[in-house]
Amino acid sequence: MSKIIIKASEIGNLTDARYFSAWGVDWLGFSLDSENPAYIGPTQISAMREWLSGPGIVAEMGPFSDAELLLQAVEILKPDALQIGQFTALEAVKTLDGSLTIIKEQIPDSLDLLADLEFEWREWAGTADFFLLNLEKNGFSWSELKKDSEKLGQLKNLCANFSVMLSTVFDATELSEIIETLKPYGISVKGGEEEKVGMKSYDELDAFFETLEEINH
């Protein structure tokens, strides 16, 4: 099995950023969406970068971003990747430098919408490098998903046909089952104590990364 790619999302402080860097995550994401409680702004992000090395830096945009806003984010922050909100137009993204990694985020309001994602994602297949399926945002858990064979089948199909980075509510003890069942491209996690949903402490994150090391080796 290929190495599972890990993205630390919505990082709000240097402590979290350095913690995730020490664990060797592939991507560090910082919110540029002023409506997001995790927003910290370009100045703070740039200051944090001086203390970090290793992971690629992701500028996480809001749900709606026009071409001008995307270009401004790239020029100001000079990220390694740009995370695009689910309502951003494909045409706006195509104006960007082709060397920039593009991550398309999807936040379903209902698990019933999983069936519709394949058609939409095929339109983005030549532009998005991978898709971040954010089920955690609305509280959808792995324990809930695996009980619904239809929804689980739809999720497995998405992971089989696209590079899917999964964000969902789960316990570290469930990680092996998630990876074996879905074979996702990657997993997205968030900072510890400041999160209301999902992992809430470094102890839980430590358990996650220790389990991941066992899986990858």
Protein model, in words:
The chain is α/β, with parallel strands linked by helices and 217 residues long. The protein has a single domain, classed as TIM Barrel. It contains nine helices and eight strands. The protein has helices spanning 14-22, 41-49, 67-77, 90-93, 114-124, 142-145, 149-161, 175-182, 202-216, and strands spanning 5-9, 27-31, 56-60, 81-84, 101-106, 130-134, 164-167, 186-190. It has an eight-stranded parallel barrel with strand order 1-2-3-4-5-6-7-8. Helix 1 (14-22) links the parallel strand 1 (5-9) and strand 2. Helix 5 (114-124) packs parallel to helix 7.
- DSSP strand count: 8
Uncertain parts? 194-200
What name does CATH use for the topology?
TIM Barrel
What do the pLDDT scores average to? 90
- How many H/I helical runs? 9
Structural class by secondary-structure content: alpha/beta
Order of helices and strands: EHEHEHEHEHEHHEHEH
General form = globular
Helical content stands at 25-40%
State which percent range the strand residues make up.
15-25%
- In the sheet with the most strands, the strands line up as 1-2-3-4-5-6-7-8
Summarize the structure.
By secondary structure, this protein is an alpha/beta fold. 39% of the residues lie in helices and 18% in strands.
